[in-house]
Design a protein that fits this description.
The protein has 469 residues and is of the alpha+beta class. Helices cover 29% and strands 28% of the residues. The radius of gyration is 23 Å and the shape is globular.
Length: 469
C-alpha cells in the first residue's frame, strides 16, 4: 500500500476565519481525504502517548509564523514521508489509532453516517445490492456481500473488494484493492462518476487454493463466473480446441470440470491491465501487462500482427520502484503545487536476465501502483509458501461493535490471511512490513536514479538459488 501527499490546497477557514493549508492524502494513487497539519499533529501526539517517542518517525515541527510557499512544499514532503513510515511500521501501521484516524478523516469530510444501498458487482457483471452504513469499512461491506451471497465465513478471506473503472465495452480497469481502513461507499461516491464500481474478486494468486473454495457451492459459482468472464474478455488465452472443450463443459453445467480445464490455460487467474508502454524489448513498445502465477506477462504485437509474450518471474526481480514524473508546461517556472501537468506513473523493476546480468525494465502506465501492489501480494504468497505457511479460516470477532483481528491475522494485510506454522519463526508481521514499502516520488522530469528509500526490495529474490534460474 502506498501513501502520498502530492499536493496541498489553500482553503478558507470556518465562519470567515483565516485561510489554512489542507493536505490531500492519496492511497495507492487515489484521493482518500483532506486533512490539516493540526490533525496530523494530533495523530502523532496520540501515537506518541501509546507507543513512545522512540518508535515514531520524525514529525515536521510547528512554525510560529506563516509558511512561505517553499516551506509549505517542504512540510508536504516531510508529512508524506511521515505517513509512509507509519504505515510501513508493523506496529503503528496496523494500530487502531492510525486506521481509525484514516476512517474518520475520510468520513467526516464527505458524508454523514446513514444507511444506504451499495451496489457491488461480481466479475460477470451481476449486481449485488447490500444495505450498509456510509461509515462501514471494507471488512463490514465484504461481510455484508458474503452474507447476501450465502458465502461461509471461512471463505470470506479468499475474496476482496476492488475499486474499478468500467469502460465503454463493459470491461473493468482495476484502480486498487480497497483497504481495511477505507469506507467503500465514500470511496466510490466521492469520485462522482458512474464509471467507478466496486467488484468482488478472488484475492489470491496460487490456483491450488481453488480447491478450498470449490468445495462450497457459492464459492464454486463465484470462481466459475469469474473464469467465464475472464475467458470472454480475452484475459485467459484459449486455443480453438480448448474453447470447444470449455463450451461443451458449460453446456453440461460441469463447473468443477470446467475450472479444472481452465486452470491449465495460460493466464488463468491473472489480472489484466490496460494497454500501456514499456521499454522492453525496445523503447516505447506498446504492451498489454497481466499479473499472475508469480509473474508479470508483457504481450506485444509485432509487425504483421504476430503476438509475442515476455514473462518476468517475480523471483528474478531483485527490486522494483514506482515513480511519478510531473511535467511542467513549457516556458513556465517551477512553483510548488502550481502549473503541473498530468502525473506520469512508471513501474520499474531490476530483472535477472541471465545469471550474471541484471537489467531495468520500465512500464509506463496509470495503473503502475496497482501493478506494484500485485507484485507485493505475489511475493507475500511466495514467502509464506517457502516458510511452510498456509491459509486458514478467518477468525474474526467484534469487540464493542468494532471489528478486531488477532495479531497473527494482522501480519499479512491482504487476504487470504497467512500464518507461520512454527511459533519460533520470526513474526510474519516483520516480513510484511519489509514488502510494503513502495515509494511514489514526485520529480520534475523522468529520472533513472533512485535512492534506497525509493526502491522496493524483493525478499523472494534473495531466497532463490541457481535451480530457480
Amino acid at each position: 500500500m502506498h501513501f502520498s501527499i502530492p499536493e496541498t490546497e489553500s482553503r478558507s477557514g470556518d465562519s470567515g476565519g483565516s485561510a489554512y493549508v489542507a493536505y490531500n492524502i492519496h492511497v495507492n494513487g487515489v484521493l482518500h481525504c483532506r486533512v490539516r497539519y493540526s490533525q496530523l499533529l494530533g495523530l502523532h501526539e496520540q501515537l506518541r502517548k501509546e507507543y513512545g517517542a522512540n518508535v515514531l518517525p520524525a514529525f515536521p515541527p510547528k512554525k510560529l509564523f506563516s509558511l512561505t510557499p517553499a516551506e509549505v512544499e517542504q512540510r508536504r514532503e516531510q508529512l508524506e514521508k511521515y505517513m509512509q513510515a507509519v504505515r510501513q511500521d508493523p506496529l503503528l501501521g496496523s494500530s487502531e489509532t492510525f486506521n481509525s484516524f484514516l476512517r474518520r478523516a475520510q468520513q467526516t469530510q464527505q458524508v454523514p453516517t446513514e444507511e444506504v444501498s451499495l451496489e457491488v458487482l461480481l466479475s460477470n457483471g451481476q449486481k449485488v445490492l447490500v444495505n450498509v452504513l456510509t461509515s462501514d469499512q471494507t471488512e463490514d461491506v465484504l461481510e455484508a456481500v458474503a452474507a447476501k451471497l450465502d458465502l461461509p465465513d471461512d471463505l470470506i478471506g479468499y475474496f476482496s473488494l476492488f475499486l474499478v473503472r468500467e469502460k465503454e465495452d463493459g470491461a473493468f480497469s482495476f484502480v486498487r484493492k480497497l483497504q481495511e481502513f477505507e469506507l467503500p461507499y465514500v470511496s466510490v461516491t466521492s469520485l462522482r462518476s458512474q464509471e467507478y464500481k466496486i467488484v468482488l474478486r478472488k484475492s489470491y494468486w496460487d490456483s491450488a487454493y481453488d480447491d478450498d473454495v470449490m468445495e462450497n457451492r457459492v464459492g464454486l459459482n463465484l470462481l466459475y463466473a469469474q473464469t467465464v468472464s475472464d475467458i470472454e474478455r480475452g484475459w485467459i488465452l484459449v486455443t480453438k480446441e480448448q474453447h470447444r472443450q470449455l463450451k461443451s463443459l458449460q453446456e453440461k453445467v460441469s463447473k468443477k470440470e470446467f475450472l479444472r480445464l481452465a486452470q491449465t490455460l495460460r493466464h488463468y487467474g491473472y489480472l489484466r491491465f490496460d494497454a500501456c508502454v514499456a521499454d522492453f524489448p525496445e523503447k516505447d513498445c506498446p504492451v498489454v501487462v497481466s499479473a499472475g502465477n508469480s509473474e508479470l506477462s508483457l504481450q506485444l504485437r509485432l509487425p504483421g500482427q504476430q503476438l509475442r509474450e515476455g514473462s518476468f518471474r517475480v523471483t528474478r526481480m531483485r527490486c522494483w520502484r514506482v515513480t511519478s514524473s510531473v511535467p511542467l508546461p513549457s516556458g513556465s517556472t517551477s512553483s510548488p503545487g502550481r502549473g503541473r501537468g498530468e502525473v506520469r506513473l512508471e513501474l520499474a523493476f531490476e530483472y535477472l536476465m541471465s545469471k550474471d546480468r541484471l537489467q531495468w525494465v520500465t512500464i509506463t502506465s496509470p495503473q503502475a501502483i496497482m501493478m506494484s501492489i500485485c507484485l507485493q501480494s505475489m511475493v507475500d504468497e511466495l514467502m509464506v509458501k517457502k516458510s511452510g505457511g498456509s491459509i486458514r479460516k478467518m477468525l474474526r470477532r467484534r469487540v464493542g461493535g468494532t471489528l478486531r483481528r488477532s495479531d497473527s491475522q494482522q501480519a499479512v494485510k491482504s487476504p487470504p490471511l497467512l500464518e507461520s506454522p512454527d511459533a519460533t519463526r520470526e513474526s510474519m508481521v516483520k516480513l510484511s512490513s519489509k514488502l510494503s514499502a513502495v515509494s511514489l516520488r514526485g520529480i520534475g522530469s523522468p529520472s533513472t536514479d533512485a535512492s534506497a528509500s525509493d526502491v522496493h526490495g524483493n525478499f523472494a529474490f534473495e531466497g532463490i538459488g541457481d535451480e530457480d534460474l
